[in-house]
Amino acid sequence: MAISGCNTEKGDRHSKQEASHSKEEVSQANLDPDIAAIIEGDWYRPALSVTWQWQLVGSINASYPVEIYDVDLYDTSLSKIQTLQASGNKVICYFSAGSYEDFREDKQRFLSEELGNTLDGWEDERWLDIRSSNVHAIMMVRLDLAKEKGCDGVEADNMDGYTNNSGFNLTATDQLAYNKFIANEAHKRALSVGLKNDLDQIVELVDYYDFAVNEQCFEYNECDTLFPFINNGKPVLNAEYLDKYVFNESERNALCTESVSHQFSTLIIPLDLNDEFRFSCL
Q1: 29 vs 23, 135, 171, 178, 230, CA distance in Å?
Q2: How many CB atoms neighbour CB 271 within 10 A?
Q3: Distance in angstroms (rounded) separating the CA atoms of residues 151 and 131
Q4: What is the pLDDT tens value at each position of the chain, 282 positions in all?
Q5: Residue of 74, 71, 105, 102 whose CA lies nearest to 85
């Protein structure tokens, strides 16, 4: 989400555009798309139907009786993370793994040839060439930061550049290799990791990730694609933004009935993720 240091895909960002081929290739690290998942280790593994709050903008409202707070990696202080954890919350730290954001403190580390097209609707973000060894190194530093700040896990955003007009000739194999790399590097640091959207590759990635973070699967009638997570005992943290769920109680109740039947953890929250309002189906 390209406001005040945050980024979410906002539904229309995921799997809605065709890839472009206008960028030259950069130095590549040849990530292995067939690398085995790191599944043994002592990290947080949230349960089905876990309760959560997602706020990336503004002073964090810590009053909700939830297990997980999903907050911005950069904008949330170490002391705030520790305060949440002292209250019994698990803290998932958000960062973008697939886009360059011109407001981040490490923006100078990216090379110009790694910056692709502007993300649709987010003028201060550009798609990254996820094949670049330099991009991989930057993401490992970001994961190091999450570990240093004591995050229990991470939410890596923009993990489906290959389906978007990125400006690069990204393939499904490129994306799988990168998404597996992010998951394994998180687990090497004993961090839980969530798969953000990337619905088309869930079957191949479910073993690598501990939970899913999804936007608008009910709005787009895509929720069945997330069932592999549920079937593997891993929660789906879903957010919906439509006005009808906010202002129409019967619509909201119908949504929540279906969500609970799926064992999803669904929130109805503002698109800006600023805690202006919140409805939880759990």
Answers
A1: 17, 10, 15, 10, 33
A2: 16
A3: 26
A4: 433 333 344 333 333 333 333 444 556 668 999 999 999 999 999 999 999 999 999 999 999 999 999 999 999 999 999 999 999 999 999 999 999 999 999 999 999 999 999 998 888 999 999 999 999 999 999 999 999 999 999 999 999 999 999 999 999 999 999 999 999 999 999 999 999 989 999 999 999 999 999 999 999 999 999 999 999 999 999 999 999 999 999 999 999 999 999 999 999 999 999 999 999 999
A5: 71
Q: Which residues are registered as beta bridge partners of 215?
A: 239
Which tokens go with 54?
Answer: 């997602």
How many Å apart are CA 260 and CA 262, to the nearest integer?
5
**Gyration radius (Cα) of the chain, Å:** 18
Of 182, 95, 194, the residue nearest 145 (C-alpha): 95
pTM of the model: 0.90
What tokens appear for 94 in the block? 């958000």
* Residue 193 CB-half CA count within 13 A: 32
Residue type, 61: N
Q: What tokens does 136 get?
A: 């991989």
Burial of 116 (0-12, 13-18, 19+ CB in 10 A): buried
